[in-house]
């Protein structure tokens, strides 16, 4: 399996295997660990399949419709994978049922969070991304599909972000078959996006702009309590 991969991918794959081995060692006495590890690995597989589809679009120089794009990119943005992996250390709160819920294609809570993340990411980073080989962003997809300017596309996508927040808030106020702590984790990671993509600037990618200073203020030079 490993030998079939190109050299650069072998490096990543080895680190991925090491990552899961390390988690397994740290949580060796956790009840139900094998089931949790299974779903965490499944989330990575879903992520990889989405990346592969985007790579196909890039090689074909295809700009899909926004609907086609979001069908794939709401997975590739990684919210479900981040949730599944972060649940590994949450103890009995994250049951097998919670994992099935988080990875369900019908999960409107994760879908709303993923939509917010994907669109804010694309709005902030599409100009930099299109300066190199990169799959078309939501901005390019919307522009081509509707024949509008970049500014008009961005304005419409921000409206969809607002709708995503409305959907997420509604989901969090409705009874759900998972503990509140699970919903809170989804909500908190979505809230963090305002830090990464504030003022249409992608400080997640360009961490030297603001992120480095913010991390230092939080972890290196925190305000004394």
TrEMBL record:
Bilayer-crossing regions: 69-90
GO biological process: terpenoid biosynthetic process
Cofactor(s) the protein requires to work: Mg(2+)
Gene Ontology MF terms in the entry: magnesium ion binding; terpene synthase activity
Domain Terpene synthase metal-binding, first and last residues per copy: 2-167
Matching SUPFAM superfamilies: Terpenoid synthases (SSF48576)
Record key words, sorted: Lyase, Membrane, Metal-binding, Transmembrane, Transmembrane helix
UniProt-recorded name of the protein: Terpene synthase metal-binding domain-containing protein
Statement: the UniProt record of this protein carries the keyword Lyase: yes
